[in-house]
Design a protein that fits this description.
It contains four helices and ten strands; from the N terminus they run ααβββααβββββββ. The chain is an alpha+beta fold.
Amino acid sequence: MKFRNTMALVVAGAGVAVLLCGEGLVAQGAPTPDQMVAALKTNLQESQKQLRQYQWIETTIISLKGEEKARKQSQVYYAADGTLTKIPVGGAPAAKPAEPKGGRGGGRLKEKVVENKKDEMKDYMDQAVKLIQQYVPPKPDQIQKAKDAGHMTVQPPDQGRVRVEFKEFVQPGDLLALDVDAKASKLAAVSVKTYIEKPEDAVTLDVRYATLPDGTSYIAQTTLEAAAKNIKVVVQNSGHKGK
């Protein structure tokens, strides 16, 4: 599908999201809002360096109405200038099905309708990705602004995690939430609930983290859903190894 490459923008953004280090959290109990903001701002500036020593495989799966429509894999690494580089791996895309014999006019019409729908979905996904990029990675000045406006809440530790929520982070009625593993002092998840133009056009992003043997956190899976269009994009990262 034409819109599948737009997800790369989300992955690139999410890949430099918050990575909380030990000094960013309070040793016991929940951190205060000021302490959490300081930790978030500091680590947002440092986190981009964490994965530059690695290369890995990224698998992107696109589904429409619950049916898988496209799947691709890329080798991913950061270039010397800090640019996230992706090289496709695997075979060439599947060939376009041959047009049935007879009814060529109807076939062309159907093909045009399909292409129009693809273009419509691509435009919609472009909007969704552009919107999500305003949340992930969270910008330090935006975090400070949300905190100063009274839109930040730090929940008490629950099952070893501390949740930091930012309401109306970008627009009214939205929510950005960061889940931190308090014991390991690492980011466990990022979630976003927002919408395109109106609340009925809901868009959600769910980012799940894992840890490499050397302690480096990385995004294990990212899921972008546009419920209004029944579109779901899942990006999985695996096979990390040093460059």
